[in-house]
Amino acid sequence: MPDLWISHARIIDPAARRDGRGDLFVRDGRIAPSLPAAARKRAQKLDARGLVACPGLVDIHVHFREPGQTHKETIATGSRAAAAGGFTTVVCMPNTSPPADNAGTIQFIKDAVLRDAVVKVYPTGCITVGMKGQALAPIGSLKHAGVVAITDDGECVQSNELMRRAAEYARMFDLPIMDHCQDSAMTRGAVMNEGVMSTRLGLHGWPNAAEDLIVARNVIISTYTGAHIHLQHISSKYSVELIRRAKADGIRITAEATPHHLAFTDRALATYDPNFKMNPPLRTEEDRREIIAGLRDGTLDCISTDHAPHTDYEKDREFDYAPNGILGLETALAAMLEVLVKDNAFKLAHVIDLMTRRPAGVLGLPGGTLAPGAAADICLFDPGERWRYDARQGFSKSSNSPWHGRTFTGRVKTTIVDGRIVFAGGKIVP
Amino acid sequence: MPWNRRHLLTVEELSLAEIGQIHATAAVFKKILQRSVKKVPALRGKTIVNFFLEPSTRTRMAFEMAAKRLSADVISLDAASSSTQKGETLRDTAKNLQALNADMIVIRHSASGSPLYLSRILDIPVINAGDGPHEHPTQGLLDTFTMQEHLGSLRGRKVVILGDILFSRVARSNIHALTKMGAAVTLVGPSTLVPHWFTDFGVTVAHDLKSALADAEVVMLLRIQHERQAASHFPSLGEYTGMFGLNKTRASWLNPKAIIMHPGPINRGVEIDSDLADGPRSVILEQVSNGIAIRMAVLYLCSGGQPENVETS
Question: Which residues, including other chains, have CB under 8 Å from residue B259's CB and lie 6 or more apart?
Fold first, then answer.
């Protein structure tokens, strides 16, 4: 593997509070403070004039559908979509077929990652057997098999007793619990946010109270057990307020926001387009504003995509019957540049922090830094390039994106994992 | 003004003028229906498919009758006898119907938005015959047509819609038609079935029956839709009738000339007493009859007919 010399970049490394022009060096797959003169001559040179160089993006919430749903996505295709989006580290949810609730399935995923992945892919395991919310999964075995967290994402453990025991037990391994906060009795048959829009469209509503209740429950369980509970894809204003209070009280709660909850509201559902259907659903402008405020003041720790591929024939049908979930990896950075930097005056370095150091920190993953000695996971993007996103031409196996056809400003140019260029010139580098 | 809409998907998307055109066209067809020869050749040679994925008596019969009065060939397909039972998607079934040379599809579906979805897939006109709790445009049009026959202009008229509004496509289509036509609409029922979100439609939401019914010129009752509700929306049918059922005493609070409407099917003794449903103020069966004329108007206009040519159609 050649040394890399990335020159004339605007280097943004939030972990080091660095934002300025300079050169980056990579040797033996790691960030090097510099290269000896002789090595510089032989190094592969990347002229990054006009580009931002930042740590490879980190997404702690993706669905790569392997094993069992490989018609939607695989570790091969999902990791390529990640690379194309500037991500070098992703964390896979365990709602596969079968669910990743045992060490054998985790080993299967790790083997597939070694064989097929072009970025770093970490597995999570289930909280409960089969994600059925009835009995605890073998959390210790899962930990030893290499999961970085446990979660029943997509389902939510309804029993407070079971959740309390899961938290207590997982704490023994210092294993975070990621929870999809949803009271399922309040959301039976629900397909969108409950409110004016669901009333107008005649669609069954998912009240934000069903999220707020479980957020409050998890704050209480974290307080009681001392366990770290990470709240996934927060969509409701009041949930943000609950988390803000919990954090002020020093409770071990972290939380994430998705690009789609930051970019859209339930007004987008006016045409019943299933590419705006996900769980939790898009909510109101008031909710959206509070999620932005929560990211701004640190109440919400990071941005995660909840990249959730589904095939055309699954998504393209009656709104009620279409599955929840949308793609996110290939558009996340561009969408956040638009929503947070352009529309809401976030500093670019802040947004990069929310997509690198902060998510890595939530789960204690390596990555999210350009410090000398760290793995050379790097994203180079052109903050000014205008481009049109065609979901059908993307690297994901599916194309269910609400951003399909959008013109963005800001495009990932090169993605480097452990010092190796994996994405450049619009292509995956073999 | 020419009519240039191919689909009828919602009342929400119609302008007041378009509602007027449908009503005026229906009035002509209503006269034709009173002749001894009730058939006109307007849609001769056309095939209309009634694709009903939910049970229906009135709407389906009225669409069928309307199509036949216009000399169209009619084919009816329901969920039980279609390939949807075999897992065929709505897209595929609809594309097949089009490939079989259907000229127009009338669809009823339990999933809101399905007619809009079909209208984007197909090249032929799509008529919404009820989509989930969303809209039932021809019902809203025939109800307002019936009200106008009794009251004249609906501007400023007090109309009460009473019952299960949340799950009612009839209510939504009526609300859109009535508000466009200038009526003062009040929705009444248990707070779980008439959520405050409805105020966004430009109507009044009330839970006190007496003040709501006072001086109302129209009261429209809606069926309690057991099949769509979770168990928790209200305690029991008995309590519902006790709180909101229309009986003689409560009917006396209405304007003396008020009419009583119901889109059917009626649950006698639940939302309305039998003698009121059959009484002199009830226009329930007129609604059914007007349903044919309205659907003739919609089928005629959406297949390219113009309002001014209807007399000679």
Answer: B146, B147, B150, B151, B217, B218, B219, B281, B282, B283
pLDDT digits (tens, 9 = 90+) for B127-184: 999 999 999 999 999 999 999 999 999 999 999 999 999 999 999 999 999 999 999 9
Cβ–Cβ gap B112/A202 under 8 Å? yes
Q: For chain B, list residues whose CB is within 8 angstroms of any CB belonging to chain A.
A: 12, 89-91, 109-114, 116-117, 131-135, 166, 169, 172, 195, 197-198, 200-201, 230
Q: Assign residue B121 the CATH number of its domain.
A: 3.40.50.1370
Cβ-Cβ contacts under 8 Å, B113 against chain A: 201-203, 272, 318-319
Pick the closest to residue A289 from A329, A217, A241 (CA basis). Answer: A241
Given the candidates 3.30.200.20, 3.40.50.1100, 3.20.20.140, 2.60.40.3140, the CATH classification of the domain at A55-363 is 3.20.20.140
What confidence score (pLDDT) does residue B231 get?
Answer: 67
Residues B283 and B296 in one domain: no
Residues of A catalogued as catalytic: 306
Weakly modelled stretches of chain A, pLDDT under 50: none
* Domain residue extents for chain A: 4-52+375-396+408-428, 55-363
Test B201 with A313 for CB contact under 8 angstroms: no
Provide the domain limits for residue B80. Answer: 16-136+291-312
- C-alpha A174/C-alpha A161 separation (Å) is 20
Among A196, A203, A272, beta carbon nearest to B200: A196
Residue A143 has what pLDDT?
98
Alpha helices in B12-128 (DSSP H): 16-33, 58-69, 90-99, 114-121
Contact A241, A210 (CB under 8 A): no
Residue closest to B147 by CA, chosen among B246, B247, B260: B260
Position B234 scores a pLDDT of 84
Is pLDDT of B228 > 70?
Answer: no
Contact A213, A185 (CB under 8 A): no
What are phi and psi for residue B220, nearest 5 degrees? Answer: -110, 120
CB contact under 8 A, B112 and A320: yes
Task: Determine the 3-state secondary structure of B190 from DSSP.
Answer: coil
ipTM: 0.95
Residue with tokens 């009816």: B76
